[in-house]
Amino acid sequence: MKTGFVGIGSMGGMLVRALLRSGVLAPEEVWAANRSTAKLETLAAEFPGIHLASVKQLASTCDLIFLCVGAADAAAALAEMDGALSSSQLLLVTASAIPLGALENRGPCRVAKLIPSITQEIGAGIALLMYGSRISRADRDRLENLLSRISKPIVISEALARPAIGLASGGPALLAYLLQSMAEEAVRTNAELSPDLARKLVQETAAATMRLVTEANMTTDEIIRRVAVPGGMTGLAIEILSQHVPLAWQEIFRETTARETKARESLVL
Questions:
Q1: Along the chain (269 residues), what's the average pLDDT of each consecutive run of 10 residues?
Q2: What pLDDT is recorded for position 1?
């Protein structure tokens, strides 16, 4: 199977490296195209045998194509593929704002959306998949088997995209921010607490808490109940958080949904 990657920036570069390191793809099976030749040369040095190509050459050669560019750059990339794509090919796009229907109207190939996560760098986390109407059972098996080597693939509908992306793909940054701000505010309340110690306490505690969930099968509700005993300091902390955190999440999901809807409405492929 010849697999192409158009765009090897932050997300595309992470994907191609993760798949190559997992062994599910061999360098000789991979074609890469990117506006920056420096990034292509770096990738080729890491994985000798990779084919460096133009977008047109890649589209004429590959069976499976990952289009890893933002929605604003997708039209130009697809224009470069005009005349090269066929119904035998599978196009996988990572830009969530591009509707599957618009992609199907744009060309003859079968299309799907993939929303990866930075956690695929360590072969873990959720990869979200959304399928177009032309996708076959064989296509689904092929994609899910491929991605299962670096993630846990979960298939969703486009209607669920924005909240699911916020939880799975955006989740690592959101959780990292919460941990970071927790440590920073603890330091601000006590000058004797060093930032390094605060970060260590938070990071080790977060890692151990997730082990309780994954290894001890504890639910988050159970952890809260066992730690935040009535009348205790942690119980007071939970009470304060409950007054503010849900409102912040409501605004996050509302505003991100509105912005993506606006971006989709203004998109021209």
A1: 95 96 97 95 97 96 97 93 95 95 94 97 97 97 97 97 96 97 97 97 98 97 96 96 97 95 89
A2: 86
Asked if residue 178 and residue 150 are part of one domain, the reply reads: no
Best CA proximity match to 65, nearest among 36, 108, 99, 22: 108
CA distances from 180 to 177, 184, 202, 204 (A): 5, 6, 8, 13
8 A C-beta contact, residue 123 and residue 22: yes
In angstroms, the CA 112 to CA 55 distance is 19
- The reported pLDDT for the residue numbered 196 is 98
* Domain housing 36: 3-161
Question: Residue 219: which CATH number?
Answer: 1.10.3730.10
Dihedral angle at the C-alpha atoms of 15, 159, 162, 19, nearest 10 degrees?
A: -10
Do 4 and 64 meet the contact criterion of CB atoms below 8 Å apart? yes
**Quick one: three-class SS letters along 61-122?**
HCCEEEECCCHHHHHHHHHHHCCCCCCCCEEEECCCCCCHHHHHHHCCCEEEEEECCHHHHH
Tokens standing for 220? Answer: 């988050």
User: Would you state the structure tokens that stand for residue 156, as one six-digit string?
Assistant: 């969703």
SS3 content of the chain, % helix, strand, coil (to 5): 60, 15, 30
Structure tokens at 163: 């909240």
In a domain? residue 166: no
pLDDT value for 122: 96
| CATH code for position 29 | 3.40.50.720
**Can you read off the two tokens belonging to residue 114?**
């993939």
The alpha carbon of 108 is separated from its chain's Cα centroid by a whole number of angstroms, namely 26
